[in-house]
Amino acid sequence: MREADKLDNMKSQDRVFRSGGQGGQRRRCDSFVNSLFEEAENAGALTASPEDNDSNADVIIKMWKNGFTINDGNLRDYSGAENCYFMDSVRKGELPEELQKTFQKEEISVNFEDRKSEDCSYRKPQINPFSGLGHRLGSATPKIITKDSEKCNELILPVVDLNNLEPLTTIKIWMADGKRIVQKFNISHRISDVRHFLERIPSKSEKVPFIFATSFPLCEIMDETVTIQEANLQKSVLVQKLLKCTETFGKS
Fold this sequence. Notes:
Layout: H1 3-15, H2 22-43, E1 47-48, E2 56-64, E3 67-70, H3 81-91, H4 97-102, E4 107-115, E5 143-145, E6 168-174, E7 180-186, H5 191-199, E8 210-214, E9 219-221, E10 237-242
Parallel strand pairs: 2-4, 6-10
Antiparallel strand pairs: 1-4, 2-3, 5-7, 6-7, 8-9, 8-10
Helix pairs in contact: 1-3
Domain UBX: 164-241
Protein name: UBX domain-containing protein 2A
Domain SEP: 56-121
């Protein structure tokens, strides 16, 4: 399909948000967002890898029933011309030009949240949630990134034994309670070692069984015996996904 055809198809899907009954609008919105996720996942993750690998940024795109937001910024209409080009890049697994200009010298991790069953009711000024200061205690102790560090009690963080003679990598962990942790591991560490690290961090969900998943495309990690290198998870984002009480929790 030609690029113009893809764009025309996207615009025609966007237009349905402005007309029709609420039930039809909801079904078309679900179809649009599901299609977007599927096409983007097939194309691959949206990442950029410049030379400065130590500098990175998270971009969270929330797909709402009535539009989408970037890093909790202003609500943007799916049907806007500029937004249409943005979403077309997402469909193809490409990094939108808008994000390239905003994060010129940073490695970008683009992650999606499916909120298509909800209306976004707030419109607040764009802020940069990554401009605050983190806290690094020692070379092997992770950095905690919080939206409001002044109101967040400092955690007791475990220490990871690192072998400086072996290659190191940085793993970003999104905890189920909203906290974000950046931790260094050897690439020979297993996913089970990452689990052991996370289980030693006090949290409200510490006794709830969980699995790990990659951020985007969302993919559950079922085999925790593999190493970070074998799973190709260097410099990746891992999401702690809590299991429901009715689900069977299999040990690795």
